[in-house]
């Protein structure tokens, strides 16, 4: 759909202006094409927004400016940012500010109206150790499924079925993430002097330390996007958000899409590998074909 709209806009501008210009070749047509995404069903629009905004954030992190260089080269700084994002997202999901996808499901909030039981935690297991171990086990299985799926996809593309290409990074990261989060949260629940409102955010923050062992800008860019969405949802009333079909994201999406497509064709090194995959999928390889034609003309 986006590819057809972009193609129609390109041809119309070419006919109206008499020739292609630097920004009328892709940027303006992509803006027109992306604007129609606001009319799509809510779920389809949300998926497209997630893909493009995440690709935009990751591409901006790879730019050759001093701040991006510092962030891209410092795993410690990336970890601190991810820890903050983790705390915001998990707290938002627990308080139901935002219901988007995240790698971890937060613990249920403690109900102040329920009288205290033998344990202070909100989970159903009587033993916190069992609760932590079960969480690690479940998320290890999820991570293993992700690693095997990635191995099958990459091996089928390369036609090389060597087990040396199989790694368990996602498995280790998810297991470490849920283990740290649940262990810290259960421990803090047993300390009455710690403010109740700080226990869960602190557990989410320390759980983000797991990023240090599996640093990926793709994960960091998604965490930044979801943290921004969580804070934005917190500041909007539920009634207003249901009435308004269109929001700021509908205005930012066409510009973000146009920026990525324009740079993907004109300066491919300015976009991430993930952006290239998303753009090819969004435009049905239309942008890549234009890039190849321009390369042949130069």
How would you describe the overall organization of this protein?
There is one protein chain. It contains 13 helices and no strands. The protein folds into 2 domains: 1-73 and 246-298, no CATH class; 81-110 and 118-237, no CATH class. By secondary structure, it is an all-alpha fold. The chain crosses the membrane at residues 20-40, 70-90.
Order of helices and strands: HHHHHHHHHHHHH
Mean pLDDT: 84
Supply the number of structural domains: 2
Helix/strand/pairing category: mainly alpha
Low-confidence blocks of residues: none
- Radius of gyration, in Å, reads 23 Å
Distance between the termini: 30 Å
**Got a strand count?**
0
How would you characterize the largest beta sheet? Answer: none
Shape: elongated
Helical fraction: 55-70%
Q: Per DSSP, what share of the residues sits in E-state strands of 2 or more residues?
A: under 5%
Keywords: Membrane, Transmembrane, Transmembrane helix
Transmembrane segments: 20-40, 70-90
InterPro entries: Tmem135
What is the fold's blueprint, element by element?
Blueprint: H1 2-17, H2 27-35, H3 42-61, H4 66-73, H5 75-94, H6 128-158, H7 169-189, H8 196-207, H9 217-234, H10 238-243, H11 248-266, H12 273-282, H13 286-297
Keywords: Membrane, Transmembrane, Transmembrane helix
Transmembrane segments: 20-40, 70-90
């Amino acid at each position: 759909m986006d590819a057809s709209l972009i193609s129609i806009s390109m041809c119309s501008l070419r006919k109206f202006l008499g020739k292609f210009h630097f920004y009328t070749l892709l940027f303006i047509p992509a803006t027109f094409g992306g604007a129609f995404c606001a009319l799509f069903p809510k779920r389809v629009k949300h998926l497209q927004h997630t893909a493009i905004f995440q690709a935009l954030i990751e591409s901006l992190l790879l730019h050759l400016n001093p701040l991006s260089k510092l962030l891209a080269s410092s795993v410690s700084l990336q970890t601190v940012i991810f820890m903050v994002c983790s705390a915001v997202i998990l707290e938002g999901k627990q308080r139901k500010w935002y219901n988007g996808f995240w790698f971890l499901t937060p613990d249920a909030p403690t109900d102040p109206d329920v009288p205290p039981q033998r344990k202070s935690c909100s989970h159903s297991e009587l033993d916190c150790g069992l609760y932590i171990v079960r969480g690690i086990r479940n998320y290890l299985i999820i991570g293993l499924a992700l690693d095997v799926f990635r191995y099958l996809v990459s091996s089928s593309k390369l036609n090389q079925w060597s087990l040396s290409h199989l790694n368990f990074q996602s498995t280790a990261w998810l297991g470490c993430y849920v283990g740290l989060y649940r262990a810290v949260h259960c421990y803090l629940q047993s300390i009455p002097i710690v403010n109740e409102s700080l226990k869960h955010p602190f557990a989410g923050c320390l759980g983000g330390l797991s990023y240090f062992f599996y640093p990926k800008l793709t994960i960091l860019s998604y965490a930044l996007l979801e943290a921004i969405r969580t804070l934005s949802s917190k500041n909007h009333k539920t009634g207003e958000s249901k009435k308004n079909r269109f929001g700021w994201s509908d205005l930012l999406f066409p510009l973000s899409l146009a920026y990525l497509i324009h740079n993907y064709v004109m300066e491919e090194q300015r976009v991430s590998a993930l952006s290239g995959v998303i753009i090819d999928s969004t435009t049905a390889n239309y942008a890549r074909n234009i890039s190849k034609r321009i390369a042949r003309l130069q």
